[in-house]
Amino acid sequence: MMREKWTAVSSGIGVGKVCRVENIVLDISKRRTTDIEGELQRFEGAALHFCKTTEELASRLGEMGCIREADILKVQIVMLEDESLRPEIRERIKKGISAAYAVSEICDKYIENLAASYDESLRQRARDIEDVKQRMLSILLGVKRAEIRNVDCGTVLVAREFSPSMLSEIIPGSVAGIVAEGGSIISHAAILARSMSLPAVFNAPGIMDRIKDGQTIMINGSSGEVVIE
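^ thats the sequence. predicted structure below, dont judge the formating
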């Protein structure tokens, strides 16, 4: 049995079987393109799909009464349509850079600058842009994200870090709790977990490598305690 204590994020007790949510490895090695118009169209198509699915996720949260949290997701649409972010991506593509690499390159620039800030709200924005980047790359590269909405009832999700878009896919009552290696108590994911009354413990370093799918886990979102097997 393993018993540890980490950062309590969202109160409540959760007991269930572990489901590890692994990060998707995205191949963006293709940097150059000769089909500039085609890549611009791919980017615009991916951006349109991103905005549509984000609106759908926000609507689901709104229907659950999570109005503030729905607005958090809508901010991601604003970010992608920002007067700096989107035009810069388009400019990189026009110089012969593939759509996927341009998205990664420009988003990383903003993430690096914001993550270095002393202002927690700006560091949180960096995490939001990281979520935008990962979701856009998944669309452009045709890679499916983890199907969180299809997990068995009573599952405890464990991940490196949760984003608001990941949590918004959870079917109410299907997940018993969440544990993450990273994350902040004031992050958007933490705010959403509390709004959903979802027991949550963050800042559990190395837990992804120390547990297996199907193990029984108990988490206490009030004290930060996690007990495995």
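The chain has eight helices and eight strands.
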